[in-house]
Structure prediction request, 223 residues.
Amino acid sequence: MKEKLHRKFAVVIVVLISIAMVVSGGAMFFSGSGVPSTNSNTSTNAPNAAADYQAEKARIAAMVKQAKVDPGNIPLQTALGNGYYNAGREALNVAPSEVQENFKNAVEAYQKVLKTNKDPNIIVDMATSAFYSGDYDLAEKSFNEALVIKPDFINALINYGIFLSQAKQDWAGALKQWQKALPLAQNSSDKEQIQAMISQAQSELKTNPAAGGTSNPNPTTGK
Prediction:
């Protein structure tokens, strides 16, 4: 993982780690899988984490073999992308040198899916994978594409905000995304977490009003 992905962002990181920049699959972003972080506690279960990672790699190898026989199998390519994404998260603690490669492979698998299926869930999955692989241009382009297709997609809004705050130090852009996401949250716990992120962004902007970045936090939605 590139060093620039490990910048410190005050207490907001504590909040972000509890929120999932995870494979969407139609699920809400609050899945408990967590944001990849060097602060993860999984090191306390290193043997289990290493075994889980090796098991994930074995599943991926089997899917890669099957994909060579059936390259047009879209569900298989989706599963392969998800597998690489999970491997990227797991490798953070047990095989750091393999993290970026896993996320790059996830991007490639998702891109094959998107050739025939412009599902915003898959687009966001690819965007987060691109983020963690270090391809910030593709990540931002993909987040914006997903939000053009589905402006009220809470996964995209939250994850794009995380990308803006961490990768680009664009707290103003992140704040806009999280403010859009807040009324879309389905329960009080989710709302509280998003509000904490909003408060942190506002605090950062109060301390440094110039924390605006160069992103496009307002993609055209046709509205």
